[in-house]
Amino acid sequence: MVDRVLQEVDAARDELVDFAAELIRIPTVNPPGAYYRECAELIGRRLVDFGYDIDYVTAETHVEHTPENPRINVVGVRRGRDPRPLVHLNGHFDVVPTGDGWTVDPFGGEVSGGKLYGRGAADMKAGLAAAIYAAEAIRRAGIELRGTVEVSGTVDEESGGFAGVAHLAEIGRIAADRTDHVIIPEPLNVDRVCLGHRGVYWFQITSRGRIAHGSMPFDGVNAIEQMGPVLEAIRTSLNVELESRSTAMPVEPPDARRGSININSILGGQAGETPQTPCVADRCEAIFDRRFLVEEGFEATRDEIIRLLDELAAADPKRRYQLEDLMVVHPTLTPEDDPLVESLSRSIRAVLGRPPSLVASPGTYDHKHVARIAGVESCVAYGPGELTQAHQPDEWCRVQDMVDSAKVMALTLLELVGS
Ligand SMILES: [Zn+2]
Q1: CA 313 to centroid of ligand 1, rounded, Å
Q2: Cα–Cα distance between 361 and 364 in angstroms, integer?
Q3: What are the extents of the domains in the chain?
Q4: Could you list which residues have their CB under 5 Å from ion ligand 1?
């Protein structure tokens, strides 16, 4: 049975690559979220051909959904003898803008030197195609399903996934009472299973000063100057503290096994492009991206920032700071002995002849919605392509990796829902 399924994946090699290339040729760039309907329908037609019942799920209640750029997801279900166990394969089909530096057509879907090129090749149209052909190989091998396979193509992962996987979870299409396992074929590499990710805390600090004439700055309080001590305290004190903490999560690369903080933006005083007037800046805003460890937790992470601001303000009565939370994503980690993790690990050994590595991701992806909203614990990212290719010019995915990852997913589907 295993051999038959693996043969079917090999036999579908060209079809799989062609389908991934077709997906790349639809420029589903986010923002703004272009051509989502076309891409959802391309996936939907393929799923119908492969025996699925499909639904187009439009996230009309979300602000991102507009008449020009509708948020359309596609979900296909192929039922076996029983509704459960149910394995859900989810891939986002939005891609980030191309940026500069390409030497190939970013939406050409060209294959050369054993690699498929284009925006979204690695992140993650190759993965979505591989997942679809993994399930199809079981059907072509004539194996009846015991449980159910679902496939979804979803939108907006690159901007948070709220109208995509979060929406499917909110309306109960991905839910603990019907969904047993979720595989997200993000580009984590063919021999790695990604168990989860660190937490994210985006926040804004606003410093307030007092406006005065620029020729007599001593009459005012400059808000930009007040931001200086904040940046300095983060550089010299918070960063040192973060260096001393590490996580037991197997985050790759290992440099990301610590918490981190990045200054995303800083805006103060008058906008640079407008004609300037002689004024003391009375407002300065800085936005920060703090990645925190499961061991730190969100509350302590936030309290640490509050304490830092309180201490700075106490040291000088002129300093006035406000903290505003912009986004919080809690860390997630699927246990190593989860049946899905164990099955994928066995499949990787069988297909590639080497042991898998279990990793965690430095950044977040749709796993958060599966874990937090749907409440499905058994979720991993596993798919072809390398994370270092994501969002890069001349993005590519190895064809052999697409085939190998499809085999790995097929064997796992066979174990979890096959007859
Ligand atoms: Zn992705």
Answers
A1: 41
A2: 7
A3: 2-197+331-417, 200-328
A4: 123-124, 186
To the nearest 10 degrees (0 to 180), the angle between helices 126-140 and 13-24 is 150
Alpha carbon of 157 to ligand 1 centroid (Å) = 7
What is the 8-class DSSP label of residue 61? T
pLDDT digits 0-9 by tens, 324-378? 999 999 999 999 999 999 999 999 999 999 999 999 999 999 999 999 999 999 9
pTM of the model: 0.90
Amino acid 419: pLDDT: 82
Q: Measured over all CA atoms, what is the biggest interatomic distance in the chain, rounded to whole angstroms?
A: 84
In sign, the C-alpha dihedral spanning 12, 17, 22, 23 is: positive
State the Cα–Cα distance between residues 66 and 416, nearest whole angstrom: 39
Could you tell me the distance, in angstroms and rounded to a whole number, from the CA of residue 396 to the centre of ligand 1? Answer: 13
Q: Separation of 90 CA from ligand 1 center, angstroms? A: 11
- Ligand 1: centre distance to CA 310 (Å): 38
**Candidates 3.40.630.10, 3.20.20.70, 3.40.1080.20, 3.10.490.10; CATH matching 2-197+331-417:** 3.40.630.10
Is the Cβ–Cβ distance between 263 and 231 less than 8 Å?
yes
pLDDT, tens digit, for every residue of 384-397?
999 889 999 999 99
The domain at 200-328 falls in which architecture? 2-Layer Sandwich (3.30)
| pLDDT of residue 307 exceeding 90 | yes
> 350: CA distance to ligand 1 center in Å?
26
55-67 per-position pLDDT tens digit: 999 999 999 999 9
Rounded to the nearest angstrom, the gap between the alpha carbon of residue 336 and the centroid of all alpha carbons in its chain is 20
Q: Which SS3 state, helix, strand or coil, does residue 228 take?
A: helix
